[in-house]
Amino acid sequence: MREDCSFVILSAGLDEITQRNAFGGIYPQERCEAIKSYISSCRNEYLRCKALILSAQTNDEADAVQFVAPTVPEGI
How far from the centroid of its chain's Cα atoms is residue 14's Cα? Predict the structure, then answer.
């Protein structure tokens, strides 16, 4: 799931430099907030999946957990 999360973020065009610039406030405020919000949404989905996997009673339950990528907002 962690790799899925990283892949989704990178596929949205948010490489590490872009992420650092957003968290450092280099871009306009609206873009920084959109990037932070998207990354937060991806992390929340990762944490949701992780919790489901850890609480699964069987391997089949754990295998059934799917990472659902958040919608990429405009302007990032």
Answer: 10
